[in-house]
Structure formats: structure tokens, C-alpha cells
Design brief:
The chain contains 27 helices and 10 strands. By secondary structure, the chain is an alpha/beta fold. It has a domain of 90 residues. The strands form 2 sheets. Strands 3-2-1-4-8-6-9 form a 7-stranded mixed β-sheet, sandwiched between helices. Strand 1, helix 4 and strand 2 form a beta-alpha-beta unit. Helix 11 packs across helix 16 and helix 18 packs antiparallel against helix 19. The radius of gyration is 28 Å and the shape is globular.
């Protein structure tokens, strides 16, 4: 069988219950092809570098240096191979084995939960994104099979009140009572993964599928329904992951990131899907999960030892994908499915803070490389996640070994004489692997005039790539510096503190704060520069690209957080021609001021909060404790309570209802002046429409 008939047959095989030998053989051929190309390119680099090192004799340091180089160069070769394969796939315009070929719009929908775990997030963003999806499904006439769950682990008292009022307002706006649910855990055990697990235990049996959102996730109704239909026609699919596009950034850093992701990611995504097929990965959000195998097979174990490398799993998504595959289910990557979006940190500082958490989580995955039942492709995904951060200290080790060898040669008076041809070819090959995907992405973009127009035209796209490349070269040493620190701190036993991720707009820290945070970086850069010059001017020249980023760390961090620079560059199709789901409408309106105070003063806020509190047996000790807190709050004002005490009081609905009546009925002369002033401000404030 050949030609169109064979392609049609392969498409049918993707959607079948059991992949037959024809499909498996095709996938094996692809994987072997990617492996051989990767190893072939890596072997060329290995041969060239060994020729350079061996030209002046061998030593234990050089042998170790060659081994470290092999790890780094193989990783680089694998990335380039994926981009090159993706370029070929997109250039051909037809991929017979992608899962979206099985999509049938006539397939009936099934009961699906849309879950959004939140932790002290911006309320307007969270509930605005839910509203966007709700109305998108409503406009399509396909809302009936979906329910929405906002799963809160928030701890800030004012944020709790905001979430409750926002939920009530959202339900009122959309007539979503009974379909949009809000739940807050009293004790946020095991962070996001624990939040999802708690939901699955309590309500998972009500739904066949679950679509997981992050707080900044946005998806169109068409994308959500397509995921459900893909699940329905692929009964062995356990997880289908989409490729979210980065959107909504207003800072220079964010715009560069979303421009680069939008332009380069399609190649890498197509290349990734080319070889992984049904053995894909899960990224923790913007994905659909089949509930029954997830409940049966994806319970997360507790790792041996203590945090940071042991204990509870921090990065759960890669592990859940591996467990799903181990149970015999497929994990697919719907890389070409439109309508999936997410935000990103607004500046370099917040981006690095996020990486600090991800680094610890990915390093924990070393334990699963030792497990018996993890599938080979899943191990490869885990290794890629580990190398995303551990490659930084490996690169530092490589440079360090080169410095030691250069110092030894310097003190022994050896004149460096390396094969010039090998050095030039290796340098050119390295540049090709580093920057080749950018060139291929541009070629792919220029071959599509309509898409090129949506990037702002050829000149803007080309200028954007040049500027993005420059910024990337300067930023890469900073990431190497911080990733190395993160890995070493984790190995030393220092665990990360999981704080709320900063999202959306924001120019980031000022010059003084940036100086306080980044000053060790340029100081270390100057020190290493002096040391490199002392070892050998040639060695200094070799590592100057890395040192340049360290020397300029402070202005780079500061400028990349600005929101008004290069506004005409880094345009993306979603910015020039935004889809309806990304347009801003009906911003959430809350009363200004302390939301905790409004939960006591405002009748609507107070009624909503009291109604949402779980009915529970009130022991004499608990009643006495909350009664004491209420008395203290009434007597001394909100500043007298800690955040923990405020949360305890908010958990007692009857006590808060009583306090509301007490504040309103007590004469001003018998009440703390703080409450008198709060009541006066409340009465003078323009009411919020509800």
C-alpha cells in the first residue's frame, strides 16, 4: 500500500484501540532516525573536540573534559535534530500520524470538569479566564457537558474574600450557579498536585474527563470541545496535551519570550510529536485527562528521604505522564490544536524565581530513573527535564576543566597549538546547532505570507529575531549562573519556598532592588575575567561570551522588565489579530480597600462568605477561640489580628455573621474608632453593582 491510501490507513490506525504492527513499525523507524541523526551529529562534534584536545597530549583532566563535552553536545544535537525534523514536517504540510487527524466534529461530548487550582492569585485573571471559556462554550451551544471548579489553596485573608465574592459575581453574570463551583481547602497539603488529587477523590467520579488549567490559562470553547472529542475517538488516550501560546505580556522580557515561543516553538513541537507519538508528556495545564486511569494509576508516591530531593513530589506532571504510560495508556501531544493560551512571568527576576521551584521539582525526578516500570520514552522525558537545569552546572564544570588545563599549560610553558581546521569546523557546527533552529523558523515563516503579515511583516520579523538573539546571548549566562546555584543549593539540602507566582503586567523591581539582588553576578564576572586573563588571554577570549552576560547582569535585568521599550518589535499574531477569547471584557469589580474588613461590613460580602462556610460541629474549645478572636477584632480593630487569626475567624461563619450585626448596631461612641471610620468610608463609597 502506498500513496494517499497508505496515509489514510495510518490515520485510521492512530484512532484505533490497539496500534497494530504497521503503526508501531513506522514509529520505531522515526525514533531510530532521530536517534541516529542525533548521535551522528554528536559523534562529529566528539571527533573534532577529541582532535583538538589530543593535539597536545592527553591527561585525566582532558578525558573528563571530553566526557562532559559529550553530554552537552549530544543534548544540543538532540534539540537541533528535533527542530530540523519539525521543519521538514511543517514544510511537507502533512503529518499522517498526528492525533488531531482523528478529530470528528460530529462526535458527541462527554461530561468534563474544567479545574483551576489557585494559590493567592489575581482574582480578576482567574475568574475572568473562567468567564471567557464559559461564554465561549455558551456561544457554541456546547456548555451542557461542562462544569467548572475553582480549587483554592489561598491563604491571604483578603484574597479569600475576593475569591468568594468573585465567584458569586461570576455566577450571577453567567447564570452559572450549579455549574461553576468554588472550593477552598482549609489545609493546602502538597500544593497543586494535592489540590487536584483532593478534587479527584471528592468529585472525580462525576466526570469522564478533566481539563486542567493554570491561573493564567485561557482556552477557547472550540479547543476544549476538540480535546473531549479526541478523547472519545481515541479510547486508549489517557492524556492529551496542547501547545499553549504565550500571550498578554506588556514588558520587554515578556514580549521577547512570547515572540520567540510563537516563532520557534512550532518547529520543536512538530519535531517532538514526530518521534514520541502516543508516548508523550504532560506539562501540568492546558491538557485533558481521562479520569478513571488517572484515579487508578497516577497517585503520587512519597520519595525517599527529605526535601528538597526527597519527600513530596514538587513537579507532578512528568511523573503523572510516566505513571499513565506505565499503566498502558497513551499520552498524546496535540501540538497543532488552536485556541490554547497561557501567560508568563513579566520580568527576568520573576522568571528566575519560577525556575527555582521548577529546578527542585525536576531534580527529584532522578528517583524515577531508578524505578523498574518506567517506560523508556518516559525516562527520556524525565532526563530532558533534569538536564533543563543540571546542564548549567555541567557547562560550568566544562569551563572549569578547560580553565584548569589552560592554567597547567600556562605554568608548564606549553605553547598552545591546536588543529585550526578542527577548531573552525567545531565552532561553525556549534553555531549551527545553536542558531540553526532560528533560521529554519524564519524560513518556515517566510514561506507563509499570511502568517508573516500577522507577525508584522518581513522587516519586523527579521529585526525581532536579531534583537531576540542578542538578548538571549546576554541572558543565557545569567540563567547558567542561577540554575547552577539552584542545583547546588538543592544538593546541599536547601529547599525552595513555594510562593505565589507573579503573572501579568508589571515592570518589575527598580534599579536599587535589582542592584541588591544581582550585584554578586557582575562581581563574579569581573573576578572570573581577571582569572581567565591571568591563565591565558586566549582562554579569556574563549569564555568572553559568557562573561559578557555576567558583566551586564544588572542593566539586562532592569531593562528587560521595562514595558515601553521596542513596542513595535516582537509582535505576534495573537497581538496583531487577537482571537475573541483574548479580548478583555467586563473586568471584575470589587470594593476598594481591605477585603477582610468588607467581609464584616458589606452585607453582600458577609452573606456570601457565611453561606460558603462548611457546616461543622463547633466544639466548646473552637467556639471559645473564635469568639475570643471576634471580641479582639471588634475591640482593637483588624490590625490586632495576624493573618492566621483572620483565617481562623473567617472559617467560623456564625461568628462572622454575629460580628457583622454587632458592628452595624453598636453606637459609634461605644466602638473602636477604626470601625467608625471604616463604616463612614463604606457609606460614602459608590456601591459596587451586584
Amino acid at each position: 500500500m502506498s500513496g494517499p491510501g497508505r496515509s489514510a490507513r495510518l490515520v485510521e490506525l492512530v484512532g484505533s484501540t490497539r496500534l497494530d504492527e504497521v503503526f508501531r513499525r513506522k514509529v520505531r523507524q522515526r525514533r531510530w532516525g532521530v536517534t541516529l541523526v542525533t548521535l551522528g551529529v554528536a559523534a562529529i562534534g566528539f571527533w573534532l573536540f577529541s582532535d583538538i584536545l589530543g593535539s597536545t597530549g592527553w591527561s585525566p583532566i582532558k578525558v573528563l573534559e571530553l566526557a562532559v563535552f559529550s553530554v552537552l553536545f549530544t543534548t544540543l544535537s538532540f534539540g537541533f535534530t528535533q527542530a530540523f525534523v519539525g521543519f521538514l514536517v511543517l514544510a511537507e504540510g502533512h503529518e499522517p500520524l498526528k492525533i488531531t487527524n482523528t478529530l470528528d466534529e460530529k462526535t458527541p461530548l462527554a461530561s468534563t470538569a474544567v479545574v483551576m487550582p489557585v494559590f493567592n492569585e489575581d482574582v480578576g485573571t482567574v475568574f475572568g479566564n473562567i468567564r471567557t471559556l464559559y461564554r465561549s462554550l455558551q456561544n457554541r451551544g456546547e456548555l451542557e457537558m461542562f462544569e467548572f471548579y475553582i480549587l483554592s489553596d489561598s491563604t491571604l485573608p483578603e484574597r479569600l474574600v475576593e475569591e468568594e465574592v468573585a465567584w458569586a459575581d461570576l455566577c450571577r453574570q453567567t447564570n452559572g450557579f450549579g455549574r461553576i463551583h468554588y472550593r477552598r481547602r482549609k489545609v493546602p497539603v502538597n500544593r497543586k498536585s494535592g489540590n487536584i488529587a483532593d478534587f479527584c477523590r471528592r468529585w472525580g467520579h462525576r466526570h469522564r474527563y478533566m481539563v486542567v488549567f493554570d491561573a493564567d490559562s485561557v482556552m477557547s470553547g472550540e479547543a476544549i470541545t476538540s480535546l473531549v472529542r479526541l478523547m472519545e475517538v481515541n479510547p486508549r488516550a489517557g492524556i492529551i496535551q496542547t501547545m499553549p501560546k504565550l500571550v498578554g505580556s506588556e514588558t520587554l522580557f515578556g514580549r521577547i519570550q512570547q515572540f520567540a515561543s510563537r516563532l520557534y516553538s512550532p518547529l520543536f513541537a512538530a519535531g517532538l510529536n514526530y518521534w514520541q507519538q502516543g508516548a508523550g508528556n504532560y506539562w501540568g495545564h492546558n491538557a485533558i485527562i481521562r479520569m478513571s486511569p488517572f484515579l487508578a494509576s497516577c497517585s503520587l508516591p512519597v520519595l525517599p528521604g527529605r526535601e528538597p530531593l526527597g519527600g513530596r513530589i514538587l513537579s507532578h506532571d512528568f511523573v503523572e505522564a510516566a505513571l499513565m504510560r506505565d499503566a498502558g495508556w497513551e499520552v498524546w501531544f496535540a501540538y497543532d490544536l488552536e485556541g490554547s493560551y497561557e501567560g508568563l512571568p513579566p520580568n527576568l527576576t520573576e522568571y528566575i524565581k519560577r525556575d527555582r521551584r521548577w529546578a527542585q521539582g525536576n531534580l527529584q525526578h532522578v528517583w524515577f530513573l531508578l524505578a523498574d516500570r518506567v517506560q523508556p520514552i518516559s525516562r527520556l522525558h524525565l532526563i530532558q527535564g533534569i538536564l533543563a537545569y543540571s546542564s548549567a552546572p555541567i557547562l560550568v564544570l566544562f569551563i572549569f576543566l578547560g580553565g584548569i588545563q589552560a592554567a597547567i599549560d600556562h605554568f608548564r610553558g606549553h605553547v598552545s597549538s591546536i588543529p585550526l581546521a578542527s577548531a573552525i569546523v567545531l565552532a561553525l557546527l556549534t553555531l549551527l546547532l545553536l542558531f540553526g533552529p532560528k533560521g529554519l523558523s524564519l524560513l518556515h515563516l517566510f514561506s507563509q505570507p499570511d502568517l508573516l503579515r500577522r507577525f508584522g511583516g518581513a522587516k519586523r520579523a527579521l529585526a525581532g529575531v536579531v534583537m531576540e538573539t542578542l538578548f538571549s546571548i546576554l541572558t543565557a549566562p545569567l540563567l547558567v549562573w542561577f540554575h547552577t546555584r539552584f542545583v547546588l543549593k538543592n544538593i546541599a539540602g536547601q529547599k525552595v519556598v513555594w510562593n505565589t507566582q507573579t503573572r501579568g503586567a508589571g515592570a518589575g523591581p527598580g534599579w536599587v532592588q535589582t542592584l541588591l539582588e544581582y550585584w554578586p553576578v557582575p562581581v563574579a564576572g569581573v573576578f572570573f575575567g581577571i582569572l581567565a586573563w591571568w591563565i591565558s588571554p586566549l582562554y579569556l577570549l574563549w569564555i568572553t561570551p559568557l562573561l559578557l552576560g555576567l558583566w551586564l547582569a544588572i542593566p539586562i535585568a532592569q531593562l528587560r522588565g521595562r514595558s515601553a521599550l521596542l513596542r513595535n518589535l516582537f509582535r505576534t499574531p495573537e497581538e496583531i489579530d487577537p482571537p475573541r477569547e483574548l479580548s478583555k471584557s467586563e473586568p471584575l469589580q470589587l470594593r476598594a480597600g481591605d477585603q477582610f474588613v468588607h467581609a464584616i461590613l458589606d452585607p453582600f460580602y458577609n452573606a456570601i462568605h457565611v453561606a460558603l462556610q462548611r457546616r461543622r460541629a463547633r466544639t466548646p474549645e473552637l467556639s471559645e477561640h473564635t469568639a475570643g478572636l471576634a471580641d479582639k477584632l471588634f475591640r482593637d480593630g483588624p490590625a490586632a489580628l495576624t493573618a492566621e487569626e483572620k483565617r481562623a475567624l473567617l472559617g467560623d461563619g456564625p461568628a462572622l455573621a454575629t460580628l457583622h450585626m454587632l458592628v452595624w448596631k453598636t453606637p459609634a461612641e461605644k466602638m473602636n474608632p477604626v470601625w467608625v471610620e471604616a463604616l463612614r468610608a463604606y457609606r460614602n463609597e459608590t456601591p459596587v453593582p451586584v
